[in-house]
Amino acid sequence: GGGVGGWVGWLVRGGGGGGGGRIHSKMISLSKAPATPDEQKIFQLADNEEVWTFERVRIVNYKIEQLETSKLPVGLFPNVTQEVVEHSIQRYVESCGYRISHYISSYTPIATSMAQSAILLCKRGTPAMQITNRAILEDGRVYEFSNIVAIDYAVTYIRPFDREIHRSRID
Predict the structure, then answer these.
(1) 38: left (phi over 0), alpha (psi -120 to 50) or beta
(2) Beta strands of the chain (E only): which ranges?
(3) Phi then psi for 109, rounded to 5 degrees?
(4) Residues sharing a CB contact under 8 Å with residue 109, sequence separation 6 or more, in sequence order
(5) In this structure, are residues 87 and 25 in contact, taking their beta carbons and an 8 Å threshold?
(6) Among residues 100, 92, 86, which one has the least CA distance to residue 26?
(7) More confident residue, 168 or 109
(8) pLDDT band at 20 (very low <50, low <70, confident <90, very high)
(9) Is residue 103 classed exposed, middle or buried when 0-12, 13-18 and 19+ CB atoms within 10 A define those classes?
(10) What's the rounded mean pLDDT across residues 115-140?
């Protein structure tokens, strides 16, 4: 299956001639705590269930470009470690036997806070893109909720034309 409408999105990076470059992650923190009411709602959890929270930086061509804070339900992923956090979360999820369906992502331009700027090594108030993701399994469960602050961010999408949506519009 092509996922949600078969759309494809990918990152086109600022600097370094676009395209790939070496990306790696460094963990800042990893903790486990009882789910807050918001987290219970997002992950459809009971009162006594726990959630992992990790913070990591994404480094591209030796430059820190993203600060990510992510949450994963402990019930789905009992064994999250630094090793997991510093590698591909998608690969880890699928290695646990789950099948990823799609993502719901929101993009909001922001100015970096003092705390974010200290980690991203930029001036406070630097323009950045805040990306909020809900990652969804094929059975409809949300398996990850993440918030990313990205500097030097640009994106290009290929999206299929949706004839039904355009037909229903009134000019």
Answers:
(1) alpha
(2) 8-11, 23-34, 50-60, 63-73, 100-111, 127-137, 142-150, 155-158
(3) -70, 135
(4) 127, 128, 129, 130
(5) yes
(6) 86
(7) 109
(8) low
(9) middle
(10) 96
Cα-Cα-Cα-Cα torsion 116, 25, 23, 107, nearest 10 degrees, comes to -40
Tokens of 18: 């676009």
Residues 66 and 161: their CA atoms lie apart, in Å, by 31
Which two tokens mark 136?
């969804």
User: How much is the average pLDDT of 15-31?
Assistant: 73
Residue 4 has pLDDT above 80, yes or no: no
pLDDT tens-digit profile of 69-95? 999 999 999 999 999 999 999 999 999
Cα separation, 16 vs 152, whole angstroms: 11
Instruction: Using the Cα atoms of residue 22, residue 104, residue 137 and residue 145 in order, give the sign of their dihedral.
Output: positive
CA distance 4 to 154: 22
Which pair of tokens denotes residue 70? Answer: 């992510």
Name the DSSP letter for residue 36: P
Please tell me the pTM assigned to this model: 0.80
Closest CA to 131 of 76, 62, 42, 67: 67
